[in-house]
Design brief:
It is built from one helix and ten strands. With about 150 residues, the protein is mainly beta.
């Protein structure tokens, strides 16, 4: 990181990059809408994914062996379970779920939850892009349609 303070740019061209709301590659993934927020030409890590989950939506209880799962709640409310503890996350709550610990969450609000996933590696993005369905639509997939290509798992 010291090189950044000596005039080198993390991007390489010395220009600021950004993504506007509603832009960036998107996938329908397990009943959610996942949008990559890293600007084109920017480093892929940290990986920033905007994830929108419908009311009642919940991933299965799962473990990331090497990935700390971190997110900032933007909208809605989720009940988070990590190991033996549970807590509510609302807009403004930053959550870190450590690698190697089983975790899940459920959207408990009447409106979709929106969160920014912040990952130090792009493994989860690679998984989303491998099994999700690319979409230009910036809406949740229709209810009950998971847009998951099972043979690609």
């Amino acid at each position: 990181m010291a090189a950044l303070f000596e005039g080198d740019s993390a991007v390489g061209n010395g220009h600021a990059l950004s993504t506007e709301s509603g832009s960036g590659p998107a996938w329908w993934f397990l009943g959610t809408l996942a949008v990559l927020r890293n600007p084109e030409g920017a480093p892929r890590t940290p990986t920033i994914i905007e994830l929108t989950i419908p009311p009642g939506g919940s991933p299965p209880l799962h473990v990331h062996d090497t990935l700390d799962d971190s997110f900032l709640m933007l909208e809605g409310q989720v009940l988070v379970r990590c190991g033996e503890s549970s807590f509510v996350a609302e807009p403004g709550t930053y959550v870190v779920l450590p690698a190697g610990v089983a975790h899940t969450f459920r959207v408990t609000s009447d409106v979709p939850a929106k969160m920014l996933l912040i990952h130090g590696k792009d493994d989860f993005l690679k998984f989303i892009s491998a099994v999700g369905a690319p979409t230009g639509d910036r809406r949740l997939p229709r209810a009950g349609h998971h847009n998951l290509e099972h043979d690609r798992l």
